[in-house]
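Look over this record before class:
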Amino acid sequence: MTETTRQKILDIAAELFAKNGYDSTSIRDISSEANVNLASINYHFKNKQNLYLNVLDNNMDTMRFSLEEIAKDSTNFREYCHLIFEHFRKNSNLFLNCFRLFINNNLPLEKDNLPGFCNAKDFNPPAFQSMLELLKNELPPTIPTKGIEWAARHIFNSIAHTNLLLSSTIVQLMEDEVDYLAPDEKKRSLDLLIDSVINYLKENPDKFE
C-alpha cells in the first residue's frame, strides 16, 4: 500500500508540475488531487523540491524502460528509430509532460542535488544504449565509438524535437494540409536522416578520432 501511495503521488505531481510549473504547484494541490494527506507526501518525499526531483527520475525511468522494451522487438537500427518515433506519437501527452518537467522549473539546485539521471559521465538520451548496440552491429568496425555515439544522439534528438513540434495543437490542425507533415513524408524524412548520418560516418571516420 505504501509503494502504491508513493507512485500515486508521483503520477499526480507529474501532471500538475507539467501543467502549472514548479512555482505554481503546491504540495497542498498535489495532496488534494491525489487524495492523500500532507503528512503522507512529507513522509515519502520530505519537501516539494525533493518530490520534483523524484518525479523527474520516475518519468525518465519510465521512458527508458519503455524504449528498452521496444528495442527487444527491433531487428535493426532503422526499425528501432521508427518504433521510437511512433511510441512518442502514441504517448504524446506523457512525452510532452516529460519535456515540460525537464525545462520548466525554477529550482535553486546545486550540482550535488540534481536528479539521479543527471550523471555527467552518462548524460544521454533514454534510448542511447540500445541505439548504440544496434548501430555497432550494422557499421564497419573501423567507425570510432565517438562517431557512433554522435549518430545515436543526433538521430534521437531529431526524433524528439519532431515529436515536440507535432504535440502542438496548431501543428496537429495543419497536418492534413501541409505536405511534409503527412505520415508517409515524416517516415521518409526520418529514413533520409538515418541514411545521411550513417553515410557520413562511413565516409568520414577520421572526423571522430
Q: What stands out?
A: Residues 45 and 51 are 5 Å apart (CA to CA). The chain has ten helices and no strands.
